[in-house]
Amino acid sequence: MTRFLFLIALLFSAPVIAQNALPASPYAHQQLDDPVQEEKARSLMEELRCLKCQSQSIADSDAPMAGDMRSQVRERIAAGATPEEVRSWLIERYGDWVTYNPPVNAITWPLWIAPGVLLILAIWLARGLFRRRKTDQKDAS
Amino acid sequence: MNRWLLWIPLVLFSLFFAIVAGGLMRPKDNIIESKMIGKPIPEFALPAAIEQRPALTTTDLATGKPQLLNIFASWCVPCIAEAPQLLALEQAGVSINGIASRDTPEDIANFLNRWGNPYVRIGTDVRSAVQLELGSSGVPETFVIDGNGVIVHQHIGDIRKEDVPELLEILEKAG
What we know:
The structure holds two protein chains of two kinds. By secondary structure, chain A is mainly α. Helix content of chain A is 62%, strand content 0%.
C-alpha cells in the first residue's frame, strides 16, 4: 500500500520538477536597482493575489507563475508605470479578484462602510451603558 | 424601545452565522475566469516553440475563420488527458493554435511526439507573459476566437470528451 502511494506521489513529482526546468523571469527574484521603484513594486506585489496559490500574495508565493507576475510588476514599474496602472492592467484581465485592496463598487461598499457602522453602533451602545450605570450609582447613594 | 435593542446582537449573530454557514456549504470554487472574453486578443508575438510549426502572433488569430487557442505544457498532467480531444477537434477541421507555457523546445517536442500534435502553430511563452495578457491563470486552458480575433469563450481545465460537441457548437456560432 505504501509503495503504491509512493508510486502515485512519484507520478506527480516529475511534472513539478519539470515546471522549474526553465530559469525564472529576470525580475522574479531580483530587486530593482532603484530603491524607490523597488519599494513601489514591493508594496504593490504584497497586494496582488497569486493565481496559483490563491491565499497568498505574489510577494509571498514560490509558484513559477507568481515569479512571472513579480517580474512583470517590477519591469512595468521600472519602465515608468505607476503602481495603480499596473494594478488596473491586471484587474482588466482577472477582475477585482486579483487585488487584495478591492475598489469600492456596488458589491464591495458594505465591506468598506461596515467598520464605521460597527464603531458608531459600539459607541452608541457603550454610551447607553455608561449613562445607565451613572444613574444606578446616584440611586444607590 | 430599549427592549428591542436587546435583539440586535442576536440578529447580528444570526446574520453572521448564516453567511459563514452559507460559505461553508457552497462547494469550493477557485476558477478565475478571464475578463478578456468579448475583447480582441491582445497584441503579442511569440517565437516558434518547435521547428516543425510556425510561430504565433496576434494577426494569425484574426483570419476571418474561428479558431482555438490552447495553452498547454509538457509538465502538465491534465494536458495529456485532453490530448485525444484536441486531436478529435483537429480531425473535425478545427484549426488549433498552441501556446506552450514555461517549457523547453526538447520537452515540447517529446510531449507532442508522445501524445500527438494537433496544432497548426505553436508559440512558446517562457515567461507566462501572453498568459497574463490573456487573463489565463493556468494550464490547460482553451480560448475560442472568432474570425475578427475577438475572444468569445474560455474553457478552463482539460477538455473532456463531453466538452467537444459544446466547443464545436461555440466555434460554429462564432463563424
